[in-house]
Amino acid sequence: MYCERLLKAIVFPCLLFFSLTAFSQEKTITGKVTDSKDGSPMAGVSVTAKGSSVGTQTKADGTFRISVSPSTTVLVFSFVGHDSEEVSINGRSSIDVQLAATNATLGEVVVTGYGTARKKDLTGSITLITSKDFQKGPQTSPLQLIQGKAPGVQISTGNGMPGAGIYIRIRQGASLNASNDPLIVVDGVPLETGGISGVANPLTLLNPNDIESMNILKDASATAIFGNRASNGVIIITTKKGNSGRLKVSYNNNVTLSTVTDVADVLNADEYRALVMAQGTTAQKALLSLGHTKWQDQIYRDAITVDNNISFTGGIKKFPYRLSLGYMNQDGILKTDNLQRGTMTINLNPKLMKNHLSIDINMKNSVTRSRFANQGAIGAAVFFDPTKPVYDPSKPQYGGYWEWELNGLPNTLASKNPVSILEQTRNVGTAYRSIGNIQFEYKFHFLPDLRANLNLGYDVSRGSGTSRTPKTNASAFYNQGSMSRYLQKRWNYLSDFYLNYQKNIASIKSRVDATVGYGWQDWTNYSPGFPTINGTGVIPAGPPFKSQHTLLSMFGRVNYGFDDRYLLTGSVRRDGSSRFSTDNRWGWFPAAAFAWRISRESFMRDSKTFSDLKLRLGWGKTGQQDVGSDYPYLARYSQSDSSGMYQFGSNYYLLLRPEGYDENLKWETTETYNAGLDVGILNGRVSFSVDVYFKRTKDLLAVISVPAGSNLTNQILTNVGNIENKGLEFSINATPVRSKNFTWEFSYNFTYNESEITNLSKIKDPNAIGNLVGGISGGVGNTIQIHTVGFAPRTFYVYKQVYDQNEKPIEGLYVDLNKDGASNEKDKYRYKDPQPKYFMGLSSQFEYKKWTMSFSARASFDNYMYNNFNSNSGTYQNFGFPNYLGNVSRDVLVTGFTVPRLWSDYYIENASYVRMDNINLGYNVGRICKNATLRVSANVQNVFVITKYSGLDPEIPGGIDNNFYPRPRTYSLGFNLDF
Amino acid sequence: MKNKFIKAFSLVMLVVFFTSCTKTLDRKPPYDVTSATVYDKFSNYKQILAKLYAGLAVSGQQGPSGRPDIFGLDEGFSSYLRQYWQLQELASDEAVIGWNDGTIKDLHNMTWTPANEFIRMMYDRIFYQVALCNEFLRETTDDKLSERKITGGDLVEAKKYHNEARFLRALSYYHAIDMFGNVPFVLETDPIGSFFPTQITRANLFTWLETELKAIEPLLTAARQNEYGRADQAAVWMVLAKLYLNAAVYTGTARHSDCVTYCNKIMAAGYTLASQYQYNFLADNNTSPELIFAVNFDGLRTKSWGAMTYLIHAPVGGNMNPALYGINGGWSGLRATKALVNVFPTATGTPDSRGMFHTSGQNLEIVDLSTFTDGYPVTKYKNVTSSGVKGSDPDGNFPDTDFPLFRLADVYLMYAECVMATSADKTTAVTYINALRQRAYGNVSGNITATDLTFDFLLKERARELNWEAHRRQDLIRFEKYPGFSNYYTGSTYVWPWKGGVAGGVGVGTFRTLFPLPSTDIAANPNLVQNNGY
Question: How far apart are CA A585 and CA A65, in angstroms?
Fold first, then answer.
C-alpha cells in the first residue's frame, strides 16, 4: 500500500522532469546596500535570487546589479556578521537595502531532520553550534568540537588514547541497558551505531575540519521525527559546502606536542624496599633487587601529532563544489600508540532546471591505520616492582627484558614487564569508511511551493587488523608466539523520500510548512572467523558472524505560524523495525509543540530592551530500538567453535545451543515534556535561553534475571521498569564589547540534571536490592554500583566506613547500618553516583585588531568517583605474593589497610572539577602576497584541572577509576593559508 | 546531456524505491539456525545432545570463554562443575580458597547469604541445564519426530537421545534437591518465556525424581554399553542410589535397602577398580574401568576456565612446580584444611597413597585464609597421563583430565554405609572397603575388620577415598542422621578451621544444611518461598 503511493510520488515528478521546459526573459535589478548603523555603503554583500544559485556581490560603493528569472520574487542580501534580509521584488527594478549587524542568530537556518527551519520559527529545544563556536585547535573526533558548548550535553573523551571513544549524553541516558548514545546524522545519513574493528572510535573517520555546523536536537518535539532512534537526542552534522564563487584554496597545518600531566601515585623504589623489608616474609625480601625504575616513565612519552588539511572551494558555472583532503599522524603518549588518518571529502551542489532541481552530493572517504598499544602496560607499570630493571640481557628468551620467573620459566601469575608488553605486541588495524549521499530537491514547476526531496545514502566500512605477539613476549612464552586476524564489514543503505509544502498566506497572516515522507534503512554487519596461529599449533577459526536489520518509516510534520507570533508544530512518525516480532514491530511516535513569540506582540514590538522573547512548550514520544542484537525476539540455535566441543566415545561434536529470547521484546518509549524561554536583549547582543524538561522512559530495556527455568538463559534483556530524568538548562551568549578594534564575546551554559529509576522489575519485591553493575578490579566478578528503584542509575553500593579520632579509616570496621548486630552484606548502603548534578561550560573570545584570544572551560559538580586504583592496590597485602612482588598505591600509607577493602565508602570521592579545555591565541597576518592571507595560531589543550579528587583524572565516564590512560596536555602551533 | 542525467537518476530512484518496498522486515539470522528448522536435520540432534552434556563442563559456545551460556559473573566462574565442586567442598571441612573474589570466602566461612553470587551461579546453572533439556525434550517427542520424518535407525537414536536428556534433567534436579531443597519445578510441558514456575517441595521432588529415574531406567543403554561420556543405565542407578542414600535428609524417611538394591546392580555390571588410585584423576582417566559417569574435558577441543582447569591450577602455588601437574602455572588458591589431612595416617602418601598433599613450604595450620602457604594443597588431579605424558594443550592451560562424577569406589562405600545403617551383615561391606584400602596401601596392612567398621570410620574413609570429589558437604549433612552425629555439619560438636569464619571453627545455624534460593530468583519469581533461616 505504502509502496504504491510512494511509487506514484516518485513517478509523477519524474515525468514532469521530462515534459516541462520553460524558457523566458530575465529581468535586471539594481540597487545599493548600506549599513543600518551609519548608512555607509557595504561592499561584498552577497545578493541572490531566493531559491536559486543566481547571485552577485556589491561593489565597493555598495551598488549591485543582478539579472534574475521572472519567477524570482525575492532577493536575499547577506553579509558576514549581518542579518540577512529577504526583500520582495514586487515588480521593482531598483531596490535599496539596509543591513543590520547580526546580534542574534535568529536568521540562521537550522537543519531539523527531513527539512530545515529558520531559527526564529523553532518550537523545540535545539542548540545550533557553528564552526565559529567550535572548540579551537586540533581535534581528532568531531564530537570534541562541541565539548562544553551546549547545555544538557555531556561530552568526554573516553581516555587519552589517540582517537579514543567519546562518551556523550544528551539530557542523561534514557535507558539502562540499551544504547544511550544519540543518533548522529551526517548530511542526511544516520550513522552506524556500532563500532568498527580496526579503529578505536568509528567517528574518528570523520574529519572535524570538514564540519560546518552541529545541531543538537534535545527534546522529543524536535527529535520525534526520527522515531524509534531518537530517545537520546539527535546530533545533525552538516559538512562544509561549495559556493558559486571563484576557487578558494585553504590550507591549514597543525603540529601538536602531547605530554603526560600526571601518573598514578605509587611508592618509589626506596620506599618500596623499606616496606618489604619491614613487612615482608623472608622469601619476599629475597625477591627484592637494588634498582630504581619508574615504570610509568618507561611507558609514556612526549608525542607529536601532525595534521594537514587542504580544501578547494568554488563553483564551475552552476556547479558549486568543495573538495577537501586531510592527513593526520598522531602518536599516543603511551609508547607505540599511533593513529594515522587520511580523509577526502567531496561536496557538489549543482542546481539544474532553472534552480528547480537542487542536487546535493556528499561523499566522505577515509582510511585510518592504527597501531594499538597494549593498554595492559598501564596497569602493569603501576604495579611492577620498582626495584627491578627494565632490561636483562641474560634473558634472550624474553627479548632481553626482565621478567618474573618460577623454576626458570615465566611465572604465569606475576605481571609482565610493561615495556616488553608494549614493545613486543604488534596490533595494527586498518579501517576504511565511506559515507555518502545524493539528495535531490525538486521544486515543482507548476507549484513552486511544493518540493520533493529524495535522499539516497550509504555508510559502508571495512575494518581489519592483525595482532602479533612474538614468542619472546613472556606472556606468549607457553604458546610460543601467536598471530590472529580480524575483519569486519558493515554496510548501511538508506533512502528517504519526502514532499514538502511551504506557503505564506498573507491574507490570513499564516505560514504553513508541511512535510510527509517515507524512509528505508538497512544495516548489515559481517565478520568471518580466522584461525589463531600459535607457535605450538593452530586454533581453528570460529564460525563467521553476520547480522542484518531494517527500518521502515513513514513520517509527517506540519509547522503552522500565525502572524509570526504563534507557532505550532505537530509531527508523527511510524517506524517498523525488523528487530522485533510482527506483533511488536510497528510504533507511532507523535510530537507537538507550541511557541509564542511574545516580542512580536503589539505591546512588545517597540521594546528597546527585548529584541526577541519566545516561549516554547513541547511534548513528544520517542523510542530506542538499539537493543544490541538484531534477532532478540527469535528462537534460534547457535553453533560452538572448535574449542567448545564435547566428547562422545572417541569423537568430538560441535555444540548447538538454543539461545534465550524474549518473544515480546519491544523498543523503549520515552516521553518528554519541555518548556523553554528564549530571550534576546539589546538587539541580540545578549541572548539567553532557559529550558526545563521532564523525561520518562517506559518499557525500559533492562537486563534482569529470568525466573529460573523459564527461559534458555538466566538473564535477559526485556522491557521492564521506568526511569525518569528531569533537568534545567540555561545558556547565555553575549557580546559585552563591540568596537572597531576590540570585540569581546562570551557564552556560558549551565545544566542541572537528575535521574531516578522508578521501577525495575516485573513484580514488586520490597526485599529486592536491585541489579548489581559496575565491575571493578580486585577479585573476579566484583561490582561497586547498583541500579535500584528510587535511586539514580549506577549509584555506588558500599559500606559506611568508620574513622578514628584522627580521621583515619579503621580497617574493616563499618557502620552497622541495619542494626542487626552483624557485619555483613546487609549493611551496604547506596551512596552518591557518578553523574554530575550540575555542569557548565564557559567560552569566551577576545578580538583586538588582528589578534584573537579565546578559551573554553567546563565544570562538573557533584559527580562521584570510585577510586579503584587505591582500593585495589592501596593495601599491604598487595606488595608481596609467594613468588613475585608488586607495587602499591601510596594511599596505603594513609589507610594502613592490610587487605583490600573494596566496598568501603572511603574510596568514593567527590570528583567535581573545573577543566580549562582550551586556550587559543591567533594572529591574522593578513595578505602576505597577492591573493594569499595567512593566519597563525597557538593552542593549549587540557590546560589545567582543578579538583579535590585524589586520583589521576576526575573525568572518567562511568565513575570507576582504574588504570586510566591519562589525557595528555597538548601544545600546538598552526597556520592557515587562504588563497 | 542533462536529460540523460535526469533519466538515469529517475531510474535509480525507481529501482531503489521498488527494492526498499519489497525488502520485508522479516530478517532471519544468516548463519544461526532458527528453532523452527534445526530439528529437520537429524545430524543436528547429536550436536544438541552434546550441548546438554557439555552444559556440565564448559561455560559457553566458545572455548575457553567468549559466548557464555549464563551471565552475571565472570564466565570462568559460571561453569556448572566448578560451582558444584565449590559448594560441596568449600562449604565443608575439606577445602579452603584464598582468593578475594566477591563473597567466595563466605562459602567456607559458612556465612553465605541469598545474595551470594556463587550460590546463584550454581542455581542458575542447574535451571539452565533443566531448561536446555526441556527444550530438547519438547522438540523430540514421538509426535514431533514423526512429524519431522525421523525414521529407522535415526528414530532409534533420537529416542535414546531423548531419554538421555531426561536423565541429565534428573541429574540436575538431584543436585537441586541436595543443595536447595524446595525449588522451582519446570518440565518440557511448560512454555518458554514469561511465566512463573511453581515451587515444588523437597519431598515431592524426591517422589518425582524416583518415578522419573525408574521410568527411564529400562529405556537407556545397558551399563557400560554406551559411548564414553554418555549416560547409561548405571548412571541412572547411581543417581537413584544417591537419592535413597540421602532419603532421610530429603524426605525424613531413610531408604537404605533401596540404595543397596541399586548399588548391587552397579556392582554387578562389570566395573572394576583402577589398578592405582590416582589413575582416576589423570589426563587419561577416560580409560579407568572404575568410572561410571564422567564429565569430559580436552585440552584442545573442550576448553573452559571452570571445572578441571580450575581444579588442577587452583591448588598449585608456593614452591610447587607447575610442570609436574602438566600445566604452565598455578593459581595459588585451593588448599585442604587439617581436618582432611588428619584423617590420613600421614600427609606423605605412605602408607595410605590416597593422602596426596604438597607439604614443602606449606603450613598445616591456616592462620590466614588468603595466604596460599597456609594449608596443604591436594595434588590428586593432574594434567599428565598415567605414563607421565603431559596433556594435549601445548600451552599448558587446559587439561585433558575428565571429572569422575560417579565411580565404583563410591558405590562400595555407599553399600557399606547402608549395611551399617540397616545393621545388616558387614562381611561383604568389609571386603569392599578392604579392596579400596589394599589398593591404597599396596598391601593388606591397612585392611580392617568388621569391628573397625563404624559410622565414624566410614565418614573418615569417605574423606580418604573421595576427598575433593564434590561429595563432602552432602556426606557431612547425611551423617547427621546417624547416631552420635547430631548437628555434625552445622553444630559446634565438630568444627574445622575457619568453620563459621573463625580460625578455630565455631558452629553455625542449622538452617545451613540447605543453601538459600538466590535473592535474584526470589525477586524474579513471586511463587517462591525462601528456605528457612534465610
Answer: 57
Question: Which three cell numbers, joined as nine digits, stand for A808?
Answer: 583515619
In CATH, what number is assigned to the domain containing residue B287?
Answer: 1.25.40.10
Residues near A606 by beta carbon (within 8 Å), at least 6 away in sequence: none
Domain assignment present for B264: yes
Mutation for B interface: A643, A706, A773, A825, most B CBs within 10 A: A643
3-state secondary structure of B16: helix
Domain range spanning residue B48?
34-219+489-534
Residues B156 and B195 in one domain: yes
Closest alpha carbon to B363 in A555, A506, A882: A882
The Cβ of residue B339 has, within 10 Å, a number of other Cβ atoms equal to 17
| Whole-angstrom distance, CA of residue A60 vs CA of residue A64 | 10
- CB under 8 Å to A385, separation ≥6 — which residues? A272, A287, A288, A289, A884, A885, A886, A887
Instruction: Note whether B42 and B138 are same-domain residues.
Output: yes
pLDDT tens for chain B, 534 residues long, are: 445 555 555 555 555 554 555 457 888 888 888 887 899 999 999 999 999 999 999 999 998 998 999 998 889 899 999 999 999 999 999 999 988 777 899 999 999 988 898 999 999 999 999 999 999 999 999 999 999 999 999 999 999 999 999 999 999 999 999 999 999 999 999 988 878 999 999 999 999 999 999 999 999 999 999 999 999 999 999 999 999 999 999 999 999 999 999 999 999 999 999 999 999 999 999 999 999 999 999 999 999 998 899 999 999 998 899 999 999 999 999 999 999 999 999 999 999 999 999 999 999 999 988 889 999 999 999 999 999 999 999 889 999 999 999 999 999 999 999 999 998 889 999 999 999 999 999 999 999 999 999 999 999 999 999 999 999 999 999 999 999 999 999 999 999 999 999 999 999 999 999 999 998 898 889 899 999 998
- Best probe of the A interface among B14, B31, B515, B519, by most A CBs < 10 A, is B31
Contact A712 B77 (CB under 8 A): no
Is the separation of the CB atoms in A163 and A200 below 8 Å?
yes
Which residues of chain B are within 8 Å of residue A712 when distances are taken between CB atoms? 128, 131-132, 135, 192
3-state secondary structure of A618: strand
- What distance in Å separates residue B429's CA from the closest CA in chain A? 33
Spatial contact of A695 and A618, defined as CB atoms under 8 Å apart: no
Contact (CB, 8 A) for A796 and A832: yes
Question: Which of A907, A967, A909 has the alpha carbon at shortest distance from A777?
Answer: A907
Regarding whether B501 and B451 lie in a shared domain, the answer is: no
User: Which residues on A lie below 8 Å from B38 (Cβ)?
Assistant: 637, 656
For residue B386, which of B467, B272, B276 has the smallest C-alpha distance?
A: B276
Of the candidates A520, A585, A636, the beta carbon closest to that of B35 is on A636
Angle between helices B427-441 and B408-421 (to 10 degrees): 140
Architecture label for domain A27-99:
Sandwich (2.60)
Distances (CA, A) of B117 to A300, A514, A823: 39, 57, 18
Instruction: Work out whether strand A537-539 and strand A532-534 pair parallel, antiparallel, or are unpaired.
Output: antiparallel
Which ipTM was obtained for this model? 0.94
Yes or no: say if A525 and A546 are a contact pair by the CB < 8 Å rule.
Answer: yes
Question: Based on the domain organization, do B283 and B354 belong to the same domain?
Answer: no
Q: Which domain-ending residue is among B377, B401, B425? A: B401
- Domain boundary pick from B372, B401, B430: B401
User: Does B453 reside within a domain?
Assistant: yes
**Do B310 and B74 contact (CB within 8 A), yes or no?**
no
In terms of Cα–Cα distance, which of A220, A258, A239, A256 is closest to A349?
A239
- Indicate whether this model's pTM tops 0.95: no
